[in-house]
Design a protein that fits this description.
Elements lengths: L4 E2 L9 H9 L19 H18 L5 E6 L2 H13 L5 E6 L2 H10 L4 E7 L22 E5 L1 E2 L4 E2 L11 E4 L16 E5 L10 E6 L16 H6 L9 H16 L2 H22 L4 E2 L10 E5 L3 H13 L2 E2 L10 E4 L6 H17 L2
Parallel strand pairs: 1-13, 3-4, 3-5, 5-8, 8-9
Antiparallel strand pairs: 2-10, 6-7, 9-10, 11-12, 12-14
Length: 360
Protein backbone atom coordinates (compact mmCIF):
# COMPACT_ATOMS: atom_id res chain seq x y z
CA UNK A 1 0.00 0.00 0.00
CA UNK A 2 1.15 3.54 -0.76
CA UNK A 3 1.84 5.92 2.13
CA UNK A 4 -0.85 8.56 2.51
CA UNK A 5 -0.51 12.26 3.21
CA UNK A 6 -1.28 12.30 6.93
CA UNK A 7 -2.61 15.65 8.16
CA UNK A 8 -3.23 14.43 11.72
CA UNK A 9 -2.79 16.95 14.53
CA UNK A 10 -1.07 14.29 16.64
CA UNK A 11 0.27 11.72 16.76
CA UNK A 12 1.40 13.07 13.45
CA UNK A 13 3.52 12.03 10.51
CA UNK A 14 7.27 11.55 10.82
CA UNK A 15 9.90 12.16 8.12
CA UNK A 16 10.06 9.10 5.88
CA UNK A 17 13.84 9.18 6.09
CA UNK A 18 13.58 8.80 9.87
CA UNK A 19 11.18 5.88 9.58
CA UNK A 20 13.49 4.10 7.14
CA UNK A 21 16.50 4.61 9.43
CA UNK A 22 14.54 3.32 12.42
CA UNK A 23 13.35 0.33 10.38
CA UNK A 24 16.91 -0.50 9.40
CA UNK A 25 18.02 -0.33 13.03
CA UNK A 26 14.95 -2.02 14.50
CA UNK A 27 16.50 -5.39 15.28
CA UNK A 28 20.12 -4.29 15.70
CA UNK A 29 21.32 -0.79 16.63
CA UNK A 30 24.91 -0.19 15.57
CA UNK A 31 27.18 -2.90 16.96
CA UNK A 32 25.03 -3.62 20.02
CA UNK A 33 23.31 -6.72 18.67
CA UNK A 34 19.95 -5.51 19.98
CA UNK A 35 17.13 -3.04 19.33
CA UNK A 36 17.05 0.29 21.13
CA UNK A 37 13.75 -0.98 22.58
CA UNK A 38 15.67 -3.73 24.38
CA UNK A 39 18.59 -1.60 25.50
CA UNK A 40 19.29 -0.75 29.13
CA UNK A 41 18.91 2.97 29.73
CA UNK A 42 22.00 2.66 31.95
CA UNK A 43 24.18 1.40 29.12
CA UNK A 44 26.89 3.46 27.43
CA UNK A 45 25.19 2.94 24.07
CA UNK A 46 21.92 4.42 25.28
CA UNK A 47 23.65 7.23 27.16
CA UNK A 48 25.19 8.27 23.83
CA UNK A 49 21.72 8.40 22.25
CA UNK A 50 20.16 10.63 24.89
CA UNK A 51 23.26 12.83 25.09
CA UNK A 52 23.14 13.36 21.33
CA UNK A 53 19.44 14.23 21.44
CA UNK A 54 20.15 16.82 24.14
CA UNK A 55 23.10 18.29 22.22
CA UNK A 56 20.95 18.67 19.11
CA UNK A 57 18.25 20.55 21.01
CA UNK A 58 20.84 23.03 22.30
CA UNK A 59 22.30 23.43 18.82
CA UNK A 60 19.10 23.65 16.76
CA UNK A 61 17.20 25.91 19.18
CA UNK A 62 20.28 27.92 20.20
CA UNK A 63 19.48 27.22 23.87
CA UNK A 64 21.60 29.27 26.33
CA UNK A 65 23.90 27.33 28.66
CA UNK A 66 21.89 28.32 31.76
CA UNK A 67 18.93 26.18 30.62
CA UNK A 68 18.35 22.47 31.17
CA UNK A 69 16.76 20.16 28.60
CA UNK A 70 14.70 17.47 30.34
CA UNK A 71 13.25 14.34 28.75
CA UNK A 72 10.08 13.49 30.68
CA UNK A 73 6.87 11.48 30.45
CA UNK A 74 3.19 12.19 31.00
CA UNK A 75 2.58 14.42 27.99
CA UNK A 76 2.14 18.17 28.01
CA UNK A 77 -0.94 17.60 30.19
CA UNK A 78 1.22 16.52 33.13
CA UNK A 79 3.10 19.80 32.77
CA UNK A 80 -0.14 21.61 33.57
CA UNK A 81 0.35 20.40 37.17
CA UNK A 82 4.14 20.17 37.22
CA UNK A 83 4.61 23.84 36.32
CA UNK A 84 2.62 25.35 39.21
CA UNK A 85 4.00 22.77 41.66
CA UNK A 86 7.51 23.90 40.75
CA UNK A 87 7.04 27.59 39.98
CA UNK A 88 4.53 28.65 42.67
CA UNK A 89 7.55 29.35 44.84
CA UNK A 90 6.86 32.79 46.26
CA UNK A 91 3.44 34.37 45.73
CA UNK A 92 1.55 31.31 44.47
CA UNK A 93 0.16 33.52 41.71
CA UNK A 94 0.15 33.03 37.94
CA UNK A 95 -1.37 34.82 34.95
CA UNK A 96 -2.92 32.97 32.00
CA UNK A 97 -3.96 33.95 28.49
CA UNK A 98 -6.71 31.60 27.32
CA UNK A 99 -6.46 30.94 23.59
CA UNK A 100 -7.87 27.43 23.39
CA UNK A 101 -8.64 24.15 25.09
CA UNK A 102 -5.08 23.39 26.21
CA UNK A 103 -4.51 26.86 27.66
CA UNK A 104 -7.79 26.48 29.55
CA UNK A 105 -6.74 23.09 30.94
CA UNK A 106 -3.39 24.50 32.07
CA UNK A 107 -5.23 27.30 33.88
CA UNK A 108 -7.72 24.92 35.53
CA UNK A 109 -4.91 22.72 36.85
CA UNK A 110 -2.93 25.69 38.18
CA UNK A 111 -6.02 26.85 40.09
CA UNK A 112 -5.73 23.75 42.27
CA UNK A 113 -2.43 24.90 43.78
CA UNK A 114 -2.62 28.69 43.91
CA UNK A 115 -4.18 31.85 42.56
CA UNK A 116 -4.46 31.47 38.78
CA UNK A 117 -5.83 34.52 37.00
CA UNK A 118 -7.15 34.90 33.45
CA UNK A 119 -5.62 38.02 31.90
CA UNK A 120 -7.39 37.73 28.55
CA UNK A 121 -9.31 35.18 26.49
CA UNK A 122 -10.47 34.69 22.90
CA UNK A 123 -13.27 32.33 23.91
CA UNK A 124 -15.84 34.89 22.75
CA UNK A 125 -15.04 34.10 19.10
CA UNK A 126 -14.25 30.36 19.36
CA UNK A 127 -10.54 31.12 19.88
CA UNK A 128 -10.15 32.40 16.32
CA UNK A 129 -7.69 35.16 17.32
CA UNK A 130 -4.95 36.02 19.82
CA UNK A 131 -6.02 38.71 22.31
CA UNK A 132 -4.18 42.03 22.21
CA UNK A 133 -1.93 42.18 25.27
CA UNK A 134 -0.17 45.04 27.00
CA UNK A 135 2.36 44.98 29.84
CA UNK A 136 -0.01 46.61 32.32
CA UNK A 137 -2.42 43.66 32.04
CA UNK A 138 0.04 41.36 33.81
CA UNK A 139 0.72 41.14 37.54
CA UNK A 140 4.40 42.01 38.19
CA UNK A 141 4.21 39.91 41.40
CA UNK A 142 3.10 36.73 39.61
CA UNK A 143 5.38 33.70 39.79
CA UNK A 144 4.90 33.11 36.07
CA UNK A 145 2.80 33.92 32.99
CA UNK A 146 1.52 31.03 30.88
CA UNK A 147 0.70 31.10 27.17
CA UNK A 148 0.07 28.43 24.53
CA UNK A 149 2.31 29.64 21.72
CA UNK A 150 0.54 27.71 18.94
CA UNK A 151 -3.02 26.48 19.30
CA UNK A 152 -3.35 23.09 17.66
CA UNK A 153 -7.14 22.89 17.63
CA UNK A 154 -7.94 26.45 16.62
CA UNK A 155 -5.02 27.26 14.31
CA UNK A 156 -3.76 30.44 15.95
CA UNK A 157 -0.27 31.44 17.07
CA UNK A 158 1.47 34.32 18.79
CA UNK A 159 3.38 36.35 16.24
CA UNK A 160 4.50 38.68 19.01
CA UNK A 161 5.34 37.63 22.55
CA UNK A 162 3.63 39.52 25.40
CA UNK A 163 5.77 41.89 27.46
CA UNK A 164 5.61 40.43 30.97
CA UNK A 165 8.54 42.33 32.46
CA UNK A 166 10.69 40.24 34.79
CA UNK A 167 8.05 37.58 35.39
CA UNK A 168 9.07 34.21 33.89
CA UNK A 169 7.18 33.49 30.68
CA UNK A 170 6.07 29.86 30.30
CA UNK A 171 4.88 28.51 26.95
CA UNK A 172 3.38 25.31 25.63
CA UNK A 173 5.12 24.81 22.27
CA UNK A 174 3.91 21.28 21.59
CA UNK A 175 2.67 21.95 18.07
CA UNK A 176 5.26 24.52 16.94
CA UNK A 177 8.57 23.42 18.47
CA UNK A 178 11.43 23.68 15.95
CA UNK A 179 9.07 24.98 13.23
CA UNK A 180 10.51 28.50 13.25
CA UNK A 181 13.20 30.43 15.10
CA UNK A 182 12.40 31.13 18.75
CA UNK A 183 14.42 33.18 21.24
CA UNK A 184 14.60 30.76 24.16
CA UNK A 185 16.12 33.43 26.41
CA UNK A 186 12.76 35.24 26.48
CA UNK A 187 11.19 32.31 28.36
CA UNK A 188 11.59 30.84 31.80
CA UNK A 189 10.23 27.50 30.68
CA UNK A 190 9.15 25.85 27.42
CA UNK A 191 7.47 22.47 27.13
CA UNK A 192 6.27 20.22 24.33
CA UNK A 193 4.66 16.84 23.87
CA UNK A 194 6.75 15.18 21.16
CA UNK A 195 3.95 13.60 19.13
CA UNK A 196 3.13 16.64 17.03
CA UNK A 197 6.44 17.82 15.61
CA UNK A 198 9.47 15.98 17.03
CA UNK A 199 8.70 12.31 17.48
CA UNK A 200 6.26 9.64 18.61
CA UNK A 201 3.98 9.83 21.64
CA UNK A 202 5.50 9.05 25.03
CA UNK A 203 8.11 11.81 25.29
CA UNK A 204 7.71 15.31 26.71
CA UNK A 205 10.54 17.83 26.41
CA UNK A 206 10.97 20.61 28.99
CA UNK A 207 13.47 23.45 28.54
CA UNK A 208 13.83 25.27 31.85
CA UNK A 209 16.04 28.11 33.09
CA UNK A 210 18.23 26.83 35.89
CA UNK A 211 17.22 29.47 38.45
CA UNK A 212 13.64 28.13 38.32
CA UNK A 213 14.75 24.68 39.44
CA UNK A 214 14.77 23.74 43.13
CA UNK A 215 11.80 25.81 44.29
CA UNK A 216 9.08 23.14 44.26
CA UNK A 217 6.26 23.19 46.79
CA UNK A 218 6.63 20.76 49.70
CA UNK A 219 3.69 18.71 48.42
CA UNK A 220 5.34 18.08 45.05
CA UNK A 221 5.80 14.36 44.35
CA UNK A 222 9.39 13.32 43.64
CA UNK A 223 8.61 12.47 40.03
CA UNK A 224 6.97 15.86 39.45
CA UNK A 225 9.93 17.86 40.75
CA UNK A 226 12.13 19.32 38.00
CA UNK A 227 15.10 19.07 40.38
CA UNK A 228 14.76 15.27 40.39
CA UNK A 229 15.19 15.06 36.63
CA UNK A 230 17.75 17.86 36.28
CA UNK A 231 20.02 16.28 38.91
CA UNK A 232 19.79 12.85 37.28
CA UNK A 233 20.14 13.74 33.61
CA UNK A 234 16.53 12.67 32.92
CA UNK A 235 17.52 9.21 34.19
CA UNK A 236 15.96 9.13 37.67
CA UNK A 237 13.74 6.35 36.37
CA UNK A 238 13.55 4.63 32.99
CA UNK A 239 12.89 7.38 30.45
CA UNK A 240 10.83 6.80 27.27
CA UNK A 241 13.90 5.35 25.58
CA UNK A 242 12.59 4.55 22.12
CA UNK A 243 10.70 7.84 21.80
CA UNK A 244 13.93 9.71 22.67
CA UNK A 245 15.81 7.67 20.05
CA UNK A 246 13.26 8.56 17.34
CA UNK A 247 13.38 12.19 18.49
CA UNK A 248 17.16 12.10 18.02
CA UNK A 249 16.68 10.84 14.47
CA UNK A 250 14.18 13.63 13.76
CA UNK A 251 16.64 16.22 15.08
CA UNK A 252 19.43 14.75 12.94
CA UNK A 253 17.09 14.91 9.92
CA UNK A 254 16.29 18.54 10.68
CA UNK A 255 19.96 19.43 11.04
CA UNK A 256 20.66 17.65 7.76
CA UNK A 257 18.23 19.83 5.79
CA UNK A 258 19.66 23.05 7.21
CA UNK A 259 18.17 23.38 10.69
CA UNK A 260 15.38 25.62 11.97
CA UNK A 261 16.13 28.48 9.59
CA UNK A 262 15.70 26.17 6.59
CA UNK A 263 12.54 24.46 7.87
CA UNK A 264 10.96 27.83 8.74
CA UNK A 265 11.36 28.94 5.13
CA UNK A 266 9.77 25.68 3.94
CA UNK A 267 6.96 25.97 6.49
CA UNK A 268 6.11 29.53 5.47
CA UNK A 269 6.01 28.51 1.82
CA UNK A 270 3.79 25.49 2.58
CA UNK A 271 1.39 27.55 4.67
CA UNK A 272 1.21 30.27 2.00
CA UNK A 273 0.14 27.72 -0.63
CA UNK A 274 -2.81 26.62 1.49
CA UNK A 275 -3.79 30.02 2.90
CA UNK A 276 -3.60 31.70 -0.52
CA UNK A 277 -6.01 29.13 -1.90
CA UNK A 278 -8.38 29.48 1.08
CA UNK A 279 -8.41 33.26 0.62
CA UNK A 280 -9.26 32.90 -3.07
CA UNK A 281 -11.73 30.02 -2.82
CA UNK A 282 -15.48 30.51 -3.12
CA UNK A 283 -16.14 27.28 -1.19
CA UNK A 284 -13.46 26.87 1.48
CA UNK A 285 -12.74 29.50 4.13
CA UNK A 286 -10.18 29.68 6.91
CA UNK A 287 -11.51 30.23 10.43
CA UNK A 288 -8.67 32.34 11.88
CA UNK A 289 -8.01 36.07 11.53
CA UNK A 290 -5.15 36.55 9.09
CA UNK A 291 -2.66 38.16 11.47
CA UNK A 292 -2.82 35.25 13.94
CA UNK A 293 -2.67 32.28 11.55
CA UNK A 294 -0.62 29.25 12.54
CA UNK A 295 2.06 27.82 10.27
CA UNK A 296 1.36 24.34 11.62
CA UNK A 297 -2.42 23.91 11.97
CA UNK A 298 -4.87 25.22 9.37
CA UNK A 299 -8.59 24.87 10.15
CA UNK A 300 -11.08 25.57 7.36
CA UNK A 301 -14.77 25.10 6.58
CA UNK A 302 -17.24 25.16 3.71
CA UNK A 303 -20.13 26.46 5.81
CA UNK A 304 -22.15 23.34 5.08
CA UNK A 305 -21.89 20.27 7.31
CA UNK A 306 -22.93 17.83 4.58
CA UNK A 307 -20.38 19.29 2.17
CA UNK A 308 -17.69 19.13 4.88
CA UNK A 309 -18.46 15.43 5.44
CA UNK A 310 -18.41 14.72 1.69
CA UNK A 311 -15.05 16.46 1.33
CA UNK A 312 -13.49 14.54 4.24
CA UNK A 313 -14.77 11.23 2.83
CA UNK A 314 -13.50 11.86 -0.69
CA UNK A 315 -10.21 13.27 0.57
CA UNK A 316 -9.62 10.11 2.60
CA UNK A 317 -10.39 7.95 -0.44
CA UNK A 318 -7.75 9.92 -2.35
CA UNK A 319 -5.00 9.54 0.26
CA UNK A 320 -5.45 12.74 2.28
CA UNK A 321 -6.22 11.47 5.76
CA UNK A 322 -7.08 12.87 9.22
CA UNK A 323 -8.51 16.12 7.88
CA UNK A 324 -11.58 16.18 10.12
CA UNK A 325 -11.60 19.28 12.30
CA UNK A 326 -11.97 19.34 16.06
CA UNK A 327 -15.58 19.12 17.23
CA UNK A 328 -15.47 22.64 18.73
CA UNK A 329 -14.58 24.16 15.34
CA UNK A 330 -16.10 21.68 12.91
CA UNK A 331 -15.11 21.46 9.29
CA UNK A 332 -11.56 20.46 8.46
CA UNK A 333 -8.05 20.96 9.79
CA UNK A 334 -4.78 20.33 7.97
CA UNK A 335 -1.80 19.96 10.29
CA UNK A 336 1.27 20.65 8.18
CA UNK A 337 4.11 20.04 10.60
CA UNK A 338 7.82 19.92 9.70
CA UNK A 339 7.54 16.37 8.36
CA UNK A 340 4.77 17.22 5.88
CA UNK A 341 6.51 17.70 2.52
CA UNK A 342 5.62 20.66 0.31
CA UNK A 343 4.23 18.26 -2.29
CA UNK A 344 1.68 17.05 0.27
CA UNK A 345 0.25 20.55 0.69
CA UNK A 346 0.36 21.18 -3.05
CA UNK A 347 -1.45 17.91 -3.71
CA UNK A 348 -4.09 18.74 -1.10
CA UNK A 349 -4.75 22.14 -2.67
CA UNK A 350 -5.03 20.55 -6.13
CA UNK A 351 -7.59 18.10 -4.73
CA UNK A 352 -9.51 20.93 -3.03
CA UNK A 353 -9.66 22.85 -6.31
CA UNK A 354 -10.97 19.75 -8.08
CA UNK A 355 -13.55 19.16 -5.36
CA UNK A 356 -14.69 22.78 -5.52
CA UNK A 357 -15.14 22.63 -9.29
CA UNK A 358 -17.14 19.40 -9.04
CA UNK A 359 -19.42 20.63 -6.25
CA UNK A 360 -20.36 24.14 -7.30
Amino acid sequence: MQRVFNFSAGPSMLPEEVLKTAAGEMTCYGQTGMSVMEMSHRSKDYQAIIDRASELFYELMDIPSNYKVLFLQGGASTQFAMIPLNLYSEKKKADFVITGQWAKKAYQEAKRYGNARIVASSDDKTFSYIPKLTKDMFDPDADYVHITLNNTIYGTKYNQLPDVGDVPLVADISSCILSEKLDVSKFGLLYAGAQKNIGPAGLTVVIIREDLIGKALDITPTMLNYQTHADNGSMYNTPPTYSIYICKLVLEWLKGIGGVEAIEKINREKAAVLYDYLDASAMFKGTVVKEDRSLMNVPFITGNDDLNAKFIKEATENGFVNLKGHRTVGGMRASIYNAMPAEGVEALVAFMKKFENENK
